[in-house]
Design a protein that fits this description.
The protein has 574 residues and is mainly α. The longest helix has 16 residues.
Length: 574
């Protein structure tokens, strides 16, 4: 059965600028008299340029169309129709400010012009000037109450701003002027439901269905309304109506199965969900709907309840087992997660993700060597998979097997020379073994491959700062990184450290204070701030941040302890 797509219908209704906003060719001054063939070919006429503009629009060449309309306006400068056409071209080109200027001139000439007000409202809405858009739409409706689509636009603006009373009045007026508007009744129902007027909302949704019996959305809204009222029999009845109208409504079937489960009707739940499990082997929509309803919103308990029944219909499904692993992992039930991830066979599209999950579970259980051994076994099945080498290299790095890490990461790069994360990880490993030149070269490669990679921009900038070289370039790199991650405490710390290295200690303190607010307990950032305060002769503050740093240090405490000891001794001597 072919579905009626409700919101596509609405979208079609609100392409209003096609309705009532096209140029009336008979009113272009230069063609008030019926043109003769010679006149039509006259490149000096406004009509000629108007026609050329229409042809250019049909070819999708809006720049050329705009040029012709400009030339037509030179011949007929007072034509509001040509000005509206120019405004529409600008709007389609997303030149909203230019479109706005044109339409403002039109409205100055005639503030009550309906087409101009429609365009002004639409452009204002695009620019998020919602108050102006509402005012324009209200003026249009007052002037011409038969502009059905404007009610929809105005009502949605009020709904967006949670002005429910205003929105409701707009849709009530829409229904009054257009008794056959099922869209108006649908949105009345949504607003009334939000306002807690559930009986009136129910009536509005039922009226929508009387006008358009095949719509699914009103029934979905009725289901939620009946759930709020605890009307179980109506919930089930309406779900069944949905499925009778459209047996392929996977979302409704999944929800009804779960509803039966929650109601303790496990037999009915299984009767719906077990066949869906089997169907999921060949119908990808079942999988998509399941993910949309349960996994994406992280409803892991509900996901597992549904999967329990679906797996009875397809116990070896790699997709369903993978999702079960993800859900159990989301609930920190790693042993159960492992059971399901291990059922995802080689050859499945989820195999790579499953083995990575397994490796990380081993890591979280404190057995990184087991994760390494496992991934090395996986490599025999996926020898050309750069992702596996990325994770293998990361685990080697974690266990300080740096030579092995370099080997694994380089093999991954050989397979995929443009793999940004492999390059980045290799740069970090080189840094950890003191190969600063190699680190710098690798980070430059990452930035070449991905110019907006904030982590690489920051890493390179901080490396320069730490070395005390190329400080102007370091500052520029880190500022560029902050464009993409403006509230990142580590990047903010890097910029503060650059200022410190440049001797700009006041700016360093200011920036490092901001970094500490973003990440209050990072020992390195706290130490940096202590160093900066020491440089501006504020020993008390320096000592405060050194002590805070020491509190959060997990290793290499000697350096910070020495700084505290030195400051304490100076304090006692003074």
């Amino acid at each position: 059965m072919k579905k009626r797509v409700f919101f596509q219908t609405i979208a079609a209704m609100v392409i209003f600028f096609v309705l009532g906003c096209t140029v009336d060719q008979t009113k272009v001054k230069s063609v008030q008299a019926q043109p003769q063939p010679a006149q039509f070919r006259d490149s000096e006429s406004a009509y000629y340029h108007f026609i050329e503009a229409q042809l250019a629009i049909k070819r999708g060449n809006l720049d050329t169309a705009g040029d012709h309309i400009h030339q037509a306006l030179q011949k007929d400068p007072n034509s509001s129709y040509l000005q509206i056409e120019l405004c529409m071209i600008y709007f389609q080109q997303k030149k909203n400010q230019e479109a706005l200027e044109v339409v403002k001139k039109l409205m100055k000439k005639d503030p009550e012009d309906v087409e101009a007000n429609i365009l002004y409202g639409r452009i204002s809405q695009e620019l998020e000037h919602f108050i102006e858009a509402k005012q324009a739409y209200k003026k249009v409706i007052a002037k011409d109450p038969k502009k059905e689509n404007i009610y929809l636009l105005l009502g949605r603006l009020y709904m967006q701003d949670k002005e429910d009373d205003q929105a409701l009045r707009v849709y009530q007026d829409l229904v009054k002027n257009f008794p056959g508007s099922y869209v108006g009744r649908f949105f009345m129902g949504k607003i009334l439901s939000t306002m807690g007027k559930l009986d009136e909302a129910e009536e509005a949704f039922k009226q929508t269905l009387e006008l358009q019996p095949d719509l699914e959305e009103p029934r979905s809204e009725l289901i939620q309304l009946y759930k709020k009222r605890g009307l179980d029999h109506k919930v089930i009845q309406t779900y069944n109506e949905l499925l009778e109208k459209n047996p392929d409504n996977e979302g409704a079937a999944l929800e009804l199965g779960f509803y039966y489960h929650e109601s303790g009707k496990t037999g009915k739940a299984e009767a719906i969900l077990k066949p869906l499990g089997n169907r999921s082997l060949t119908d990808s929509v079942v999988i998509q709907k399941f993910v949309q309803l349960y996994l994406n919103p992280k409803k892991y308990e509900a996901a597992l309840a549904v999967l329990e029944y679906m797996l009875k219909g397809a116990p070896n499904s790699p997709e369903l087992n993978y999702f079960a692993g993800v859900a159990y992992g989301g609930l920190d039930r790693d042993d159960k997660a492992l059971v399901h991830f291990e059922k995802v066979a080689h050859g499945s599209r989820f195999y790579q993700n499953s083995v990575v999950h397994i490796a990380f579970i081993y890591q979280q259980q404190g057995d990184v060597e087991k994760a390494i051994g496992f991934l090395n076994e996986v490599r025999k099945k996926l020898p050309e998979d750069p992702e596996i080498l990325l994770y293998l290299g990361s685990f080697y790095e974690e266990t300080e097997q740096f030579d092995n890490a370099v080997t694994a990461l380089k093999k991954g790069i050989d397979i995929d020379p443009k793999h940004v994360r492999l390059h980045f990880r290799l740069g970090v490993v080189y840094d950890k073994i003191g190969k600063k030149d190699e680190t710098i070269d690798i980070m430059r490669t990452v930035i070449r491959l991905d110019p907006k990679n904030a982590n690489a921009l920051n890493y390179l900038g901080y490396t320069y700062a730490d070395l005390g070289t190329n400080l102007d370039e370091a500052e520029n790199l880190i500022k560029e990184a902050l464009k993409y991650k403006p509230d990142d405490g580590y990047i903010t710390d890097s910029l503060g450290w650059v200022y410190y290295k440049k001797g700009l200690y006041g700016k360093a303190v200011e920036m490092l204070e901001r970094a500490v607010k973003l990440i209050p307990n990072d020992p390195i950032i706290l130490e940096h701030l202590g160093d900066a305060y020491l440089k501006i002769n504020n020993s008390k503050k320096a000592l405060e941040y050194y002590n805070r740093s020491l509190k959060h240090q997990k290793k290499d405490k000697e350096k910070i302890e020495k700084k505290i000891q030195t400051l304490t001794q100076k304090g006692s001597e003074s």
